[in-house]
Structure formats: structure tokens, C-alpha cells
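USER: Please consider what follows.
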Amino acid sequence: MDKKLKMIMILIFTFVCISSPTTLPSLETVSHAVGNPTHQVKGILGGSVLFPPNISQGITVQKMEWDFYPQRGGLGFWLGEFSHGKLEHPSPTDRFGQRLDMVDETTLRIKDLELDDSGIYNARIWITKAQFQEQSFSLTVYEPVPTPHIDHQVESKTPGGCNVTLRCHTPGREDLSISWEAGNPHRALGKSVTQYQVSHNGRELRVSFWNSSFDSNFTCLVSNPIDQNRASFDLHNICQSDEGGHLQLLSWSPWLISSVIVLLVNDGELDELEDQIRKE
């Protein structure tokens, strides 16, 4: 390769670098991105969220650009550009419609959240025409926690109390955390394994309850990272009723079983004796 051709290639490379400065971010831009990890944001279906970038004092922002990458896959797309006090949303008829706005010069807001709004939102903050910083926000949108329902099953009963299994049921498709509370006001269960036994998935609570116990109210608490709901059940209504009592009556009174058997046997013997007398 002659010197003339080398000189032409160097000039072309230099021209490309000068005319496209944003393709080669400065060291300051790179270090800023590394020093600002992705911000975790949680929202509830139908609510709103804010994405406030972390911008150092004294920095004047010329404009901001936003893009979005859905959590459930699919191609990302450009949300818009904010400059001169105005958000230019390129496609107001897309899935965000009129739900996007800016609450100040740098903070993006999404209203009327939908489940498919979950994903990564990237902010490109332009400080000069050739210098920008990038920050990311990871949004997770949760459904409101539905009201749980408690079923019960009486395992055994005595005059002083009963053993009951409570089951907490929750409609909905998302994973929920389930825990149990006692009393009113609510508080965490005690550590007595002889009085309380919780299943591995947390949905079932077995209680050894005495009618003289101070706490008869048990509550199932269902929650996700942004919402919670409760349902309560009073064991006094069960343990002091006749429910389950007919099953336990025989186990409490073995003498009663023996007495019934003796009566039946004696009744049979009397019948045989009467038959013999008639024959004679």
C-alpha cells in the first residue's frame, strides 16, 4: 500500500470519528453509567410510577431521551424526547398512548399502569451536543392482592377445646407471600410448635386451641412487594359448637362403647332365653 492510499484512509477515519461523536462515549460517560446501577421501581396495576434520574448538582440538561424494553420479551422501542419543557412522544397511538408525561425537566411518569408495562426504561441525559449519561430503571407492575378466604376443618374436639386446620385460599395468577397472625390487634404467631403448625407452603395452619385461650382470632396475611390483604377466623365459634363433636364422642368415651356392646349382647341372650321357654 503506497503512502498516498494510507493518507486517504487516515483522513476518512478521522472524518468519521469527528462527525459521529456519540458512537464513542467519553470515559466520563462510561464511568457514570457504571457508577449508577439499575434502579428498581415497583408499581401497582392502575397506579402510576416516577422515574427520577440521579443528576449531579450544577449539571444543565439540554434534553432527555427515553426507550423501553419489555420484560416479557419483544423488541424495545423509543418512547420520546423531552426538551424545551415539552415531551415529544413519537407515536401517541402506541400502547402507552397518553399515559406518558414529564413531571419536571428530567422525571418521566407513567399513569394507569398495565402489567405489560414491566420492563427496562433507559434514560439518555444529554449534557452537551456530544456528551450524555445513561441511567436505567427496572419496573415491575403487580396486581392488587385479592381478599383471601379461610376454610376450616375440625380434626378433634374435647370439652376444653379442639384441634383445627385452617386453610388460606387466594385467587389470582401471581405468586403471593402468605403468613399467619394471631389476636386483635394482629401479631405474629408464637413459637410454640405444640400449639401452632404451619405447612411448608404457608397456606395451612394447624391450631391446638383451648376455649380458655386469650387469642381466638387467627388471620391470614397475603402480600406482594407493594400490596397486602387479610382475612380472619374466630375459633370460638367452632370449638364451642357441636361441629365435629359426634366424631370425637366415641374416642372420648370408650366406656360408652363397652356399655353399648354389653347391652346388645344381653338383649340377644334374653331373646334366646324366651325362645327356649316357649319351646318347653
Summary: Residues 157 and 246 are 9 Å apart (CA to CA).
